[in-house]
Automatic annotation (TrEMBL):
GO MF terms held by the record: hydrolase activity, acting on ester bonds
Superkingdom field: Eukaryota
Gene Ontology process terms (BP): lipid catabolic process
Keyword Metal-binding: no
Domain AB hydrolase-1: 66-188
Record's protein name: Lipase
Family to which the UniProt record says this protein belongs: Belongs to the AB hydrolase superfamily. Lipase family.
Catalytic residues in the record: S160, D334, H365
Position of the signal peptide: 1-20
Pfam assignment, any one: Abhydrolase_1
Keywords annotated in UniProt: Glycoprotein, Hydrolase, Lipid degradation, Lipid metabolism, Signal
Annotated InterPro entries: AB_hydrolase_1, AB_hydrolase_fold, Lipase_euk
Length: 390
């Protein structure tokens, strides 16, 4: 027992030391600094959802209408759209005169606030999944943008989970279909039948992991506000070895490898803000979709489902109701968003206007936001779509 404690104590001390020694080098990237640096100082907005979460939204003002909303993926933040500086999507759109808005989902470091729940002490704060991002966060964000701009509609670009939530929004709150002129889905995520190994294997462990975390009362995942997140960040920050462990061995293995597009220097930036917090329940919901092979609401078990949905199984999201215009942009080396799963999705979306496969053979799950040459293999398609459907 004593040995065990000692060991943990020593590890903890090492982490504290590593952290302290790295803090001066690793100043966390943030939207306000970076947007200013690249010529489009962002204006922050506070958005309060119907259920009391306080979300941070940023605007890089521009003339063009309708405005463009960018929504990040799982455990990500608005920073992701600025990683590449003048070669990033947010700045490229702003340079072209677009009115750019960057959203943040509840739980991440910009939106870890609530009018009365305390994220550090109230487990109820973390009682959400992507369902709540879709049904509460998105409507609050969209309505704020439309109010501020006087526009009737907006364009949206979502990465990964950032587009999943638009399908749910369109099906559960169909009135929002009319507020979206065009949704461009980068690395689309809906069905998860065909994710590649070893990610596939990891997904089979999510229910077990969830049960364990629930028992030990861990409801917040990945973020650096908590010790496990600090350990991960410290590990990834070790010069040379950090990139090898976190990127070459973990990220590339899980999400597809594309080393040319994701070099050590840009990793240093990404590692300051990614991964950010989300809830255990969110990860669990993805695990359920994978296991049940159905795109459906959170499964609370037979008794919980009866109370929640008046049915023993969770209702499926009805994709027929998602009548907003949707364009899909897909990478061939994306080991989460496989072509087979995206084909399933595309066959069910009633108003899919475009399905583009990027010509880059090694295009992986993260090249949509962090890639070095997005201006070559991604942005032209986005700009064509925005022009075509404006
Ligand atoms: C970004 O700026 C750098 C240096 O000013 C320049 O070399 C590069 O071409 C720019 N990239 C884009 C996409 O504009
Ligand atoms: C990711 O997917 C690509 C394309 O299907 C495949 O060649 C590669 O082996 C996969 N990576 C892993 C680690 O499974
Ligand atoms: C619950 O479902 C049953 C059978 O499907 C139906 O008869 C009943 O009216 C429903 N109750 C509520 C409160 O919707
Ligand atoms: C839509 O998709 C096709 C490829 O499937 C592409 O050739 C076309 O240019 C795309 N863009 C627009 C704006 O139609």
């Amino acid at each position: 027992m004593f040995g065990h404690c000692c060991f943990i104590f020593i590890i903890y001390q090492i982490i504290v030391l590593v952290e302290c020694s790295l803090v001066p080098i690793l100043k966390t990237v943030n939207v306000l600094d970076r947007s200013l640096k690249f010529g489009h100082p962002a204006i922050p907005f506070q958005v309060i959802t119907e259920d009391g979460y306080i979300l941070q939204l940023f605007r890089l003002p521009g003339e063009k209408k309708p405005p463009v909303l960018l929504m990040h993926g799982l455990s990500d933040t608005a920073d992701t759209w600025l990683v590449r500086g003048n070669g990033s999507l947010a700045i490229t759109l702003a340079n072209a005169g677009y009115d750019v808005w960057l959203g943040n989902c509840r739980g991440n470091r910009y939106s870890r606030r609530h009018v009365y729940l305390d994220p550090d002490n109230d487990p109820l704060f973390w009682e959400f999944s992507f369902h709540e991002h879709a049904v509460y966060d998105l409507p609050a964000i969209i309505d704020t943008i439309l109010d501020e701009t006087g526009s009737k509609k907006l364009n949206a670009i979502g990465h990964s989970q950032g587009n999943t939530i638009f399908y749910i929004l369109g099906s559960i709150r169909p009135e929002y279909n009319e507020k979206v002129n065009l949704m461009i889905a980068l690395a689309p995520v809906c069905y998860l039948h065909n994710i590649k190994p070893p990610l596939y294997t990891l997904f089979t462990f999510i229910p077990l992991l969830n049960d364990f975390l629930k028992k030990v009362n861990i409801n917040e995942l990945f973020g650096t506000e908590k010790i496990p997140g600090k350990i991960l960040k410290a590990l990834c920050s070790i010069p040379y070895v950090g990139y090898t462990i976190c990127i070459e061995n973990i990220l590339f293995t899980l999400l597809g490898a594309d080393p040319e597009e994701f070099d050590r220097d840009v990793f240093k930036i990404v590692n300051t803000f990614f991964p950010s917090s989300t809830s255990r329940k969110n990860l669990d919901h993805f695990g359920q979709i994978f296991k049940s092979r159905r795109f459906e609401r959170y499964d609370y078990g037979v008794i919980g489902n009866k109370a929640m949905y008046n049915s023993s199984t969770p209702p499926s999201y009805d994709l027929k109701k998602v009548v907003m215009r949707i364009a899909l942009i897909v990478g061939l080396n994306d080991n989460i968003s496989s072509l087979k799963d995206i084909d399933l999705l595309s066959n069910q979306l009633p108003n899919m206007v475009n399905y583009t496969v990027s010509p880059r053979k090694t295009f992986n799950h993260m090249d949509d936001t962090w890639g070095k040459n997005m201006a070559v293999y991604l942005f032209p398609y986005i700009f064509d779509l925005l022009k075509e459907y404006s």
